[in-house]
Design a protein that fits this description.
The protein is an alpha/beta fold. The protein has one domain: P-loop containing nucleotide triphosphate hydrolases (Rossmann fold), CATH 3.40.50.300. It contains seven helices and seven strands; from the N terminus they run E-H-E-H-E-E-H-E-E-H-H-H-E-H. The strands form two sheets. It has a five-stranded parallel β-sheet with strand order 2-5-1-6-7, sandwiched between helices. It has a two-stranded antiparallel ribbon with strand order 3-4. A hairpin with a 4-residue loop joins strand 3 and strand 4. Helix 1 packs across helix 7. The radius of gyration is 15 Å and the shape is globular. It starts with a strand and ends in a 21-residue tail after the last helix.
């Protein structure tokens, strides 16, 4: 089974992935490292100052079974489950500021989180195999919840639609 761990930048994907590897013994692959190593790019986005990923080439990559694939576009891959991390926009702003994101990039990512962009994409691609976890609180607690999903435990606890950040829209 392959599982995508996705979410807006700053929701804790990398931190949670490290806990999944170190404490739960799961095999996790950093999708950004795969993209970089195999040069899965079709161009450069000057506005965002980043490479444009060749999704077709990435989808053809031979990912092995038994992986958690971590990255904010991992939901575009052929996987059996998708876990979307969600974070309160006020907390997300602080995390993105700590990462040194520009104000424009912070605003863009907060708006994407408020509008459920990644969640909606994941649902369109994977339907009922999408699960949502709030990573606003402790990331170790969140890692435990993510691990439960990877094991198929109490999946009904993580059905989508439980988080509504639209009240933050004017603050973004």
């Amino acid at each position: 089974m392959k599982i995508a761990l996705t979410g807006t930048p700053g929701t804790g994907k990398t931190t949670i992935s490290n806990v999944l590897k170190d404490e739960f013994g799961l095999k996790v692959v950093d999708l950004n490292k795969v993209i970089s190593a195999f040069q899965y790019y079709i161009g450069w986005d000057d506005n965002r100052n980043c490479g444009v990923v060749d999704l077709e080439a990435l989808r053809a990559h031979p990912f092995e079974d038994g992986l958690v694939i971590e990255g904010h576009i991992s939901h575009h891959l052929s996987v059996e489950r998708v876990i979307v991390l969600r974070t309160n926009p006020a907390v997300l702003r602080g995390r993105l500021q700590e990462k040194g994101f520009s104000e424009n990039k912070i605003r863009e990512n907060i708006e994407a989180e408020i509008l459920d962009i990644i969640l909606i994409e994941a649902l369109g691609l994977h339907g009922n195999n999408v699960y949502e976890v709030d990573s606003t609180g402790g990331l170790r607690t969140t890692a435990q919840l993510v691990w439960e999903i990877t094991q198929g435990y109490t999946l009904e606890r993580f059905v989508v639609g439980r988080y509504d950040w639209t009240s933050y829209l004017n603050d973004s």
